[in-house]
Amino acid sequence: MNVLLVEDEKPAAQKMTRLLKQTAPDADLVAITETVEETVNWLQERGEPDLILMDIHLDDGLCFEIFDTVKVTAPVIFTTAYDEYAIRAFKVNSIDYLLKPVNQKDLEKALSKYRAIHEKHNHGQAEYQHLLQEFSPAYKSRFLLKIGNRYKSVSVNQIKYIFSREGNVFLQSIDGQAFALEFSLDHVQKLLDPSEFFRINRNCLIHINSVEEMIAYSSSRLQLRITDEKPQEMFVVSRDRVPEFKRWMDR
């Protein structure tokens, strides 16, 4: 774990460094800052460590000014000779409040508390990611197409658009080939990631990378200029879908 020590008294900083090495050999003391200003600058430039050990009385004021200036989400173990700031400390990410002189036993307990919180947080994050993957829809990444007695695999990134014509559905690839699909356009739309494909009208789904330009069209509609395609009625965004289409393109 990366630890930032905020301490303006050199003997206290040296003692805390020694105690940290004895108590947590795996800890990496990334810096020692001595003032509110220096700590704020360090956090803004370097980002947050895993844990902060922080004295309350610093050379240029109380450490709480740090929290008023920069957002701090890292857990903090406060070390101080004063007990009157305990309530205030626990309002700003404090996991423990150690009175000086700090001894090894107290620091061990505080670090054990940090590890328990850290482990619980990581476990919760892992569970969240697992649930996210489990319940997120699995969109198609490619289509396996039958062409005569042959098969061809086409990645969704190779699709320019998908359209229906006279009751049949076709996939138009970026290399200019058209392939028949055995699905309805409604079904194909459910299979594809909506962040990449948009149903611009009743007959056409387009890939976002295929849109080169949008042109104002009659009655508040939009005509799209599709890569390597001549303008056609097929590439007109229906009036009722224009606002959503603009948001989709602008996200």
TrEMBL record:
The modification 4-aspartylphosphate is found at D55. Gene3D superfamilies: 3.40.50.2300, LytTr DNA-binding domain. Pfam families: LytTR, Response_reg. Residues 143-251 form the HTH LytTR-type domain. It comes from the Bacteria. The keyword S-adenosyl-L-methionine does not apply. SMART domains: LytTR, REC. One of its GO terms (molecular function) is phosphorelay response regulator activity. PROSITE patterns: HTH_LYTTR (PS50930), RESPONSE_REGULATORY (PS50110). Residues 2-115 form the Response regulatory domain. This is DNA-binding response regulator. It comes from Prolixibacter bellariivorans.
